[in-house]
Every structure is written in C-alpha cells, then in structure tokens.
C-alpha cells in the first residue's frame, strides 16, 4: 500500500481525494467552515438514545439492514472486536478480501481463503455477506495485482473480465446478499463528456464493460442483488459540479435500464467530510427520488465521516462527526428505496482513514461509531437515533 500511495499519490485514489479537495474547499469557502464550526460548538445538540439495543436491532425494527466492512486478519486477531462486530452488525462486507489484489495472485489462480473465512464468520453469527467488488478501475493501479496491468489488453480484456466475474460470483452463489458489480464507474474529473471514469476496462472494452459485468453476474448468481457502486463524497466540488455528477449517474442508470442491463441497486459510498457537510438536503433528496423512480433500490455502502481537518479536541470532534452522521442519515432514510446502511469499518481502531486521511497533528482519527477501545461514541448514538426515527419499511 505504501508503494501505491507513493507512486500514484492520493490524488488518483478517488476517496483519498477527500483530503486534497477539502483543503481547496476550505480555502474557497471560509464562510461554510466558520458557520459549521460555530454550529457544532452548540452543545445543546442532544444525541440521547433510548435503551442500549445494538444498531443491527434498531435497523431491523424499521425493516433496514445495518452492517460494516472488516477484514479477516482483524477478526481472527482481535476477539473483543469480533464480538462487538457480531453484536452490532447484521451484514459483513470484506474490506479488501474480494478485490483482485487478494483473490487473484496470478492470472490462472483464485485464492478464496481469506474471503471464505469472513463468510464463515458471518454465517456463524447469523449475518448476511456482501460482495465488494467485482470490477473496479483501481485494480489496474498499484493496488491491484501486477499481472493485470501487465497482461490485459483490448484483445483479452473481455475474456478476463467474464472469467473473473463468473468464477467469483459462482463461488459464492446462493450465499451472497449483494454484489458491487462495478465500483466507482463515474468520475467527471477525467474529462469525458459522459463523465465516466477513464479506467482500463473502459479503454479496452468501451462502455459495454458495465453491461457485460452485470449480465455475467446475473447469470452466475441470479439471487444476489446487483449494485452499481457510486463514489458520492461531495468534496471540494462546487454545487454545479456535484449536480453534474448526479445528473451523469442518473443518465448512466437510465441508459443501463433502457438497454436491459440487469442492475438492481445504486450503492452510494458516503465517505463524508466532517469539516463541512457538503450535501444540499433538497437536492440529495431529489436525487434519491430520481434513482428510486427508475425502479432501483439504494444502499449506503461505505459510510464514514472524515475528521482529518476537524479541531483536535475529541469532544468537539466527536460532536461534529456525530452531527454529520445524523443529518445525513435522517435525510437519506426518508427515501423508502434506501434499504441498507453500511459503515466502512466499525471501530476507530481499524479505519482506512488512518492511512489515507491522517491528521497533521498525528492524533488518531475518529471517523466510526465505536472508539479504539470499542466503546460507543456519539457517532453511534447518531446512527442509532437515525434508525429509531426512520420511517418503518415494514409497514
Ligand atoms: C479501501 C480499503 O478500506 C483499504 O484498506 C485499502 O487499502 C484501499 O481500499 N472506496 C472503495 C473501497 O470502494 O474499496 C476502498 O477501500 C475505500 C474507497
């Protein structure tokens, strides 16, 4: 990973962009920052929660699904964390174990051992299992296996993609809640008129790679929900750019639906920035409605709140992070098509932001519901409150 960061830098890694982009946002929009910090010093905001039921039960009471991403080494080496994970989560997502970097040591080998270990943990704790991710442009970067970028070209790309999707989806057929079939498909900063991310898959196969991936997945396991996972972090972009991004995604979804691509849900990553809540409530709501009106379900797939630029004081920081969680989830859960909320990790002890969005003052980051010692934070309360107040899907 260190190599990956050095060579490509944060700039190329979509969610890592949060850091760079946010600095620009702050420089350009000091008013937003001041307003926000001001509001968050308002200690009257009440994050009280009734009872101590875990998040999975609070979500289930409303017909929602809550879970988190984690890793096989974490669960096998930290039994206390594993216990908290099983208590709070109803669905488990392998953070890296289903990526090409782990699954595909060589062109002709599949190594399912780490992902299988996570599946068996999930099953033994009566949790669902979710697949992340089959086709992702980043697999061609330093993060993916070297052989992929060295051997795949426009002649063999189709066969490589089909072989991967078919083999992996068949391996888990009948046991997978949902698959992120294509991840981070959209990136307007790459300069294409249609806003698509200029990945190697796109270069080799054209836009058809998306359809190919979805059709292959549908054939290999008709029952797993097929998700297009969308980078929605709303950082550093102005309102116009953010809207352009959403319009682009909608256009893509419309096109996929019109041509019969078997996409069933939109995944919204939700790596939110704590320094200022970038979402425009009215527009986000309208976007969710538009997605739902295409007959698609919506899942929040990688939620966390980046505290990189927030004040050092832990109480202030936790309050800000919790506020973002609650504001975002209260809004999003009003949309009936939203079925699932997944946080990208559960405890601050294990978060990708320690590496990708660390703080200048070197203080440990605090983006998740539980603290390093697995204690529930205000962020946990915020999520619990949003579930408790959510409209009931079961009615
Ligand atoms: C991240 C993992 O959390 C890290 O452990 C890994 O080093 C890099 O990938 N968007 C995605 C996820 O779709 O796959 C990324 O996961 C985070 C951003």
Q: DSSP strand (E) fraction?
A: 5-15%
**Kindly state the mean pLDDT as a whole number?**
88
Largest sheet: 8 strands, parallel, barrel
Shape: globular
Low-confidence stretches: 1-41
Topology:
Blueprint: H1 2-12, H2 17-28, H3 30-40, H4 55-61, E1 65-70, H5 72-77, H6 79-88, E2 91-94, H7 100-103, H8 113-124, E3 128-136, H9 146-151, H10 157-171, E4 178-183, H11 200-205, H12 208-220, E5 225-230, H13 239-258, E6 265-268, E7 271-273, H14 281-293, E8 297-306, H15 314-332, E9 338-343, H16 353-356, H17 378-389
Parallel strand pairs: 1-2, 1-9, 2-3, 3-4, 4-5, 5-6, 6-8, 7-8, 8-9
Helix pairs in contact: 4-17, 10-12, 13-14, 15-17
Describe this structure in words.
The protein has 395 residues and is an alpha/beta fold. The chain has a single domain (2-388), classed as Glycosidases (TIM Barrel). It is 46% helix and 14% strand. It has 17 helices and nine strands. The chain has helices at residues 2-12, 17-28, 30-40, 55-61, 72-77, 79-88, 100-103, 113-124, 146-151, 157-171, 200-205, 208-220, 239-258, 281-293, 314-332, 353-356, 378-389; strands spanning 65-70, 91-94, 128-136, 178-183, 225-230, 265-268, 271-273, 297-306, 338-343. It has an eight-stranded parallel barrel, surrounded by six helices. Helix 13 links the parallel strand 5 and strand 6. Helix 4 packs parallel to helix 17 (378-389). The longest helix has 20 residues, at 239-258. The N and C termini lie far apart (46 Å). The model is unreliable at 1-41 (pLDDT under 50). The structure holds (3S,4R)-3-hydroxy-2-oxopiperidin-4-yl beta-D-xylopyranoside.
